[in-house]
Every structure is written in structure tokens, then in C-alpha cells.
Amino acid sequence: MGNSVALIDYGAGNLHSVENALRKVGAEVNVTADSDVVARAERIILPGVGSFKSCAEGLRAVDGMVEAMESRALSGGVPFLGICVGMQLLATRGLEHDTTDGLDWISGDVELIEPDDPKVKVPHMGWNDVGLTPHAHGNEVVQPGEAYFLHSYRFHAEDGADIVAMTDHGGGIVAAVGRDNLLGVQFHPEKSQAYGLDLLSRFLEWNP
């Protein structure tokens, strides 16, 4: 398996920055809205910025894309990375404004961050520590460090075994989820300087 990556373009991702970061670490990047390309991809990245609802609707509006992702990543086992809202879309539901169905690849809900300390601001914006959970063993991609976050909603995983990493923002917040060949990170690797580039480099080498 090589370093070719299908970066999914569905009108809801910070594609240019992610593409540039991937090229810096030697990836062959195919920015694509073509489900046939995704159905043959060696590695898949799903970015996402904005609301859960708009991202979910945008992804489903691309003909055959969800089916191609399910065939290639969920069933086919190729390495998959969701970034920010791209990670959140792995959940069962998003509870932002309305209830919106996610992909339901990793059971859980995406809900508003409600800090324990009222002085802690939402959105969660800026650099924060990423700490591994006991369930992170076997996942070589996410490592402890400091990453850049920008979000108002958090992933509440139903099964703690799916939580790879945590951060803290007025209470614990899931920083990464994963199972088998599936991985999602709440932070932005493309904005996380050396830490993020190292993560993307490890993703290119990952053979789950």
C-alpha cells in the first residue's frame, strides 16, 4: 500500500491547507469529488469545517460518495482519516441545532461543548495537549503532543474503547477516535505545525 491519498472534496473542507500539508510529507494527493476514485483509493481523508448538518448534507449530495467510502474503508479496510467535522461525521448523530444522522461508523453523538468552568470559552480554539487513552495501543498514528483545535461541538463516544486520545477544555474532550483502520481527529493536523505533519506522515505509513 503506497502513499496515494484520496482527499474528499464535498464543499465542506479546508482542502487547500490539508492538501499542502500532505504534499509536504510526500503524499500523492488526489483531491476528488468522484466516488469511483474513492472506491479505488489506497487511503482516504475526509476533512470538514462548519456545521455537522451542512457537512452531512454536502457529503450525501455527492452521488455515490457515502457508498464508496463504506465499500472501501468500512468494509474494504483501507486506512481512513476524518479531520475535525470529518471526524464528527463518523458518529451516529449530530445534535447541532437539529438532529442529523451521521455515518454511524463509530457509535456516539456530537453535542455542544459545555465546560464545567463558566470562564472557559466556547468555541474551543487554539493549541491544546493531546493525551493518549489506554485504548490507544495498536494505533501508531496519534501520539501525545500539542495540536491546534477549533470547534464548538464534541464527540461523545458510546464505547470508551473507541476513544484514542483526549484533551481538556473545561472538562475532558475527545481528541481522537478510532477502531481498526478508521481514525478521526478533532484537531487540525494541517494547522498543527510539526506535530500535525508528523501525524500525517505516520498516516501514510499506517497499515492497520
From TrEMBL:
<dbReference type="GO" id="GO:0000107">
    <property type="term" value="F:imidazoleglycerol-phosphate synthase activity"/>
</dbReference>
<dbReference type="Pfam" id="PF00117">
    <property type="entry name" value="GATase"/>
</dbReference>
<comment type="function">
    <text>IGPS catalyzes the conversion of PRFAR and glutamine to IGP, AICAR and glutamate. The HisH subunit catalyzes the hydrolysis of glutamine to glutamate and ammonia as part of the synthesis of IGP and AICAR. The resulting ammonia molecule is channeled to the active site of HisF.</text>
</comment>
<dbReference type="GO" id="GO:0016829">
    <property type="term" value="F:lyase activity"/>
</dbReference>
<dbReference type="InterPro" id="IPR029062">
    <property type="entry name" value="Class_I_gatase-like"/>
</dbReference>
<dbReference type="GO" id="GO:0000105">
    <property type="term" value="P:L-histidine biosynthetic process"/>
</dbReference>
<feature type="active site">
    <location>
        <position position="190"/>
    </location>
</feature>
<protein>
    <recommendedName>
        <fullName>Imidazole glycerol phosphate synthase subunit HisH</fullName>
        <ecNumber>4.3.2.10</ecNumber>
        <ecNumber>3.5.1.2</ecNumber>
    </recommendedName>
</protein>
<feature type="active site">
    <location>
        <position position="188"/>
    </location>
</feature>
<keyword id="KW-0378">Hydrolase</keyword>
<keyword id="KW-0315">Glutamine amidotransferase</keyword>
<comment type="subunit">
    <text>Heterodimer of HisH and HisF.</text>
</comment>
<feature type="active site" description="Nucleophile">
    <location>
        <position position="84"/>
    </location>
</feature>
<dbReference type="InterPro" id="IPR010139">
    <property type="entry name" value="Imidazole-glycPsynth_HisH"/>
</dbReference>
<keyword id="KW-0368">Histidine biosynthesis</keyword>
<dbReference type="InterPro" id="IPR017926">
    <property type="entry name" value="GATASE"/>
</dbReference>
<keyword id="KW-0963">Cytoplasm</keyword>
<dbReference type="GO" id="GO:0005737">
    <property type="term" value="C:cytoplasm"/>
</dbReference>
<feature type="domain" description="Glutamine amidotransferase">
    <location>
        <begin position="7"/>
        <end position="193"/>
    </location>
</feature>
<keyword id="KW-0456">Lyase</keyword>
<dbReference type="GO" id="GO:0004359">
    <property type="term" value="F:glutaminase activity"/>
</dbReference>
<comment type="pathway">
    <text>Amino-acid biosynthesis; L-histidine biosynthesis; L-histidine from 5-phospho-alpha-D-ribose 1-diphosphate: step 5/9.</text>
</comment>
<keyword id="KW-0028">Amino-acid biosynthesis</keyword>
